[in-house]
Amino acid sequence: xxxxxxxxxxxxxxxxxxxxxxxxxxxxxxxxxxxxxxxxxxxxxxxxxxxxxxxxxxxxxxxxxxxxxxxxxxxxxxxxxxxxxxxxxxxxxxxxxxxxxxxxxxxxxxxxxxxxxxxxxxxxxxxxxxxxxxxxxxxxxxxxxxxxxxxxxxxxxxxxxxxxxxxxxxxxxxxxxxxxxxxxxxxxxxxxxxxxxxxxxxxxxxxxxxxxxxxxxxxxxxxxxxxxxxxxxxxxx
Amino acid sequence: xxxxxxxxxxxxxxxxxxxxxxxxxxxxxxxxxxxxxxxxxxxxxxxxxxxxxxxxxxxxxxxxxxxxxxxxxxxxxxxxxxxxxxxxxxxxxxxxxxxxxxxxxxxxxxxxxxxxxxxxxxxxxxxxxxxxxxxxxxxxxxxxxxxxxxxxxxxxxxxxxxxxxxxxxxxxxxxxxxxxxxxxxxxxxxxxxxxxxxxxxxxxxxxxxxxxxxxxxxxxxxxxxxxxxxxxxxxxxxxxxxxxxxxxxxxxxxxxxxxxxxxxxxxxxxxxxxxxxxxxxxxxxxxxxxxxxxxxxxxxxxxxxxxxxxxxxxxxxxxxxxxxxxxxxxxxxxxxxxxxxxxxxxxxxxxxxxxxxxxxxxxxxxxxxxxxxxxxxxxxxxxxxxxxxxxxxxxxxxxxxxxxxxxxxxxxxxxxxxxxxxxxxxxxxxxxxxxxxxxxxxxxxxxxxxxxxxxxxxxxxxxxxxxxxxxxxxxxxxxxxxxxxxxxxxxxxxxxxxxxxxxxxxxxxxxxxxxxxxxxxxxxxxxxxxxxxxxxxxxxxxxxxxxxxxxxxxxxxxxxxxxxxxxxxxxxxxxxxxxxxxxxxxxxxxxxxxxxxxxxxxxxxxxxxxxxxxxxxxxxxxxxxxxxxxxxxxxx
Lengths: 237, 636
Known about the structure:
The complex is a heterodimer. By secondary structure, chain A is an alpha/beta fold. Helix content of chain A is about 45%, strand content about 15%.
């Protein structure tokens, strides 16, 4: 275990063994400056995330796949995408877990640790976007804590909250990603596969920022405010 | 970044593109190159994707989803727009990208639109990589330019139609509603009606409105007054039966022909049922012809003041524009302009002769340069001189003064009639260009003997002389003397050939055309210096070497070419090339002047369509061939 990551105090779950190289990479990621959330949508980088999991409960589900597609300056470049499919997990096909992720991950220098560090490197400190972000965030936080001993504290944006506020005339229901994709005619390459869904969600994000910008909600920070206000209103109602 | 993710997204993009032309025909590697470099961009409903104000088109846009409304401005300055809707798989801004200019129209998202955008640099790389894509872009542009050209022709056609020609159908010629009476109407009634409405003729129709006769004012005298016919008689008894009729679809020309054949002054226009629809009189047709060639000539010949000639000169312009619009060839138009300009000039000379007594002196008015070659375009200034015979050397000074006085007036009048004074003072009022035959001969001989740069330049202007007025045989004598000189001085022709080779056709090794580096006119070619001159200079050498008297470039090429054993096909190709460049000049000058600018000769090859560019390239190749012949003949 490397001393400097402790000094930086990022590792909240001690006891996870990482190689020196992994510690170094993780330290490098942690030193990245936080993203400036006050820049325009069209001058910043969002990372749209989707995951596949063994069940719908983020506290017990096993992570099967992670995919991320970046939206940079409002654009999606196919070169700017990341995916991890855990061994033996055919995307969206086999819901039964066949590999013990936790067990693999607890070994020092595990391949999964490398993958997760590569994921963090891809994300950087960019605000993360997901549809139904609470589930994705919990699952990722748990996985990152288990394998890297890291508490992920990045800003999250949830399209499941943002879209209904921007398109009030359309009621897709709280968790209906399909309904939104249909509404905007976005075809998924392969539905329920993490990368396809991340790409489709990235397109929803493009639509969302364009319409948000028209309403004066033109930065990640103001988009977060919009989400917060809606959550507050609906959860307190 | 993970390769598997990138690959998945790129493959999906490739699959999408493969459903649409031209991508479905693109090479796999090129398609992958495209998919790797595009970025997916979203435009909300109503957003402007690309428009002229955004400057040079930054990317190629391929619609992934949604619809885009493309508005384009058609024609030049017409302000009209056409709009079309583009859907998935369709690409736009190809023309603007290729030309590296802003788009002419605008593109707007009709609904939520996603576009794949390929940055301009990658676009150009792709045109290099993929011949299928390159072909698509080229054809696309050719198509666009064809469209714009059709618009252009339409505009021309409209203008030509506005000044109705003898090709107009009678339906368009007939203006007033036909006044007709039934066969039973009394003569008194008819004559009263004619007097009341100031009609020269009256058509008599049956119950079905079919014309059965015509009665004219001249008939009143011959058939009623002189014979003392009763005014109570029906009109049928005095009308001329079986009037000449033509269907409404017949044209004015047919009507004129019928009138001439039958010696009549009116033709009745009838519809399909034979019913009367209008009357065309000889006078209507006369008006219609308006400023026809014959009328203009007549007007010029009859003009007795400069004011009238100014009018005629405008008519010449108008008519040549109409000819241009109707697709008359450049050779005919330039010849036509020259002929009518000659007529104007002659008339101006005649008018001035009334005030200047030159009686008893042999003299001739000469024109030089393009006028001397019968190759005038819309913008032309004066290039003229006088040759005269002075039998007594003592009178020379005095005679020249008289001619100079006269020439000054002619030059001024020409200026007033739209032939601006020559900036280089190549005008008859210049004492250096108002010379006796011997002086001209001596001067020519000097240039030929000592072909220094200025002499060669002079040769290109003055050796294309042509008599316009006066004793034409003086010009002939001058020509023969010039040939005698050049035959005796082979070096001169060699120098003239070398001079002709000093300007090369603007064909590039890498790019199609070599355009001007002048910062004020970037991307242009001066079609006078780098176009017409290539041909005229070569033709001049050919003509002088083979004692061809003609000054016109086409004539020179034909006659000299025959002597020089140039194949008829080659010759025809050269002449076509020359004429094409002239046509481009005419068209360009016309547009420049339409927009209130002095017509220059600066053509922008990028503005031409694909076909025109190819023809222009070919024209330059023809010029290169002529130059190659010069090199061969003079071992240059």
